Model the fold of this input.
Amino acid sequence: MPPKLVASKKVYQGKISIRVDDYFLNNRMLRAEVIQHSDSVGVIPVDDKENVILVEQFRFAPKKSLIEIPAGTIEENETPVEAALREMNQEIGFKGKITPLLHWYLAPGYDTEKMYIFLATDLKMVRDRLPMDEDETIQVRKMKLKTAVFACMNGQISDCKTIAAILLVARLNDVHQ
Amino acid sequence: MPPKLVASKKVYQGKISIRVDDYFLNNRMLRAEVIQHSDSVGVIPVDDKENVILVEQFRFAPKKSLIEIPAGTIEENETPVEAALREMNQEIGFKGKITPLLHWYLAPGYDTEKMYIFLATDLKMVRDRLPMDEDETIQVRKMKLKTAVFACMNGQISDCKTIAAILLVARLNDVHQ
Done:
């Protein structure tokens, strides 16, 4: 039996917000904090030499620099595909053919964020490069898909969505180490 | 240049909390909301017939039932390995040989949670089964690793950590579709 929502209250409102839900489960009242976060996109750009184009940036939450797939929040009035093309433009300066692969939840135990995952192929440099978001200082990291798989296995890449994305594309492309 | 933290303020305190950081980057002051969440463990239990033991539960944030690896927060005074064994006991009723694989961040753009990932083999049913957490109503889902890989590729499994974990173990075990 799914839990039954009894009450829901917003306790913090910002870019991210938190709501506290009271629900009835197994004959008991329980309370859960839920992070409300916009849905997002992640793109795996693979060029015609089987290089994957990743980005490295300092992340304030874990306080370290991480290698990740280009990704970001879907803006209002944007479709997931439009968001994927915008993020590719902003973060790596490429456009390409966008193929939807999957969607997944990043932390479904407490966070609403759903991320749509795309493969980008037939990559071409954009002429009308958009400015990056003001909080981004990004370095582009291009590497063979095979090298990226190895970097996932040995801990050099430590972002979960990036590991899932790279192992997924490696499996679709039948890449072995 | 990494950003320089100038001020940090807690704006919500619960099981999860939010802090607002002001920092200096690219000659500008910027503000970021950061979710502070405890670190956690995820376990991929694989039996001697190459079945993986997953759990299905209703998740309140995405409002749907998801298939996931056994996982949970590391309690105070617990090591990650102890947490992995406790979660296996509570969620699936097994103990086993625990091998550390990786750690990864679930949503490093705004969330501090780091998850330690373990492989569990030599599985044995526990005699001293611990009670589940009060907010958990879990169904155990045992399936061939190969079937789990297929469920990741076709969207039946839509939890990012579970997709990363299963594709990782499939690659380590050299499982093909």
About this structure: The helical segments of chain B are 80-92, 145-153, 160-172. Residues 80-92 of chain B form the longest helix (13 residues).
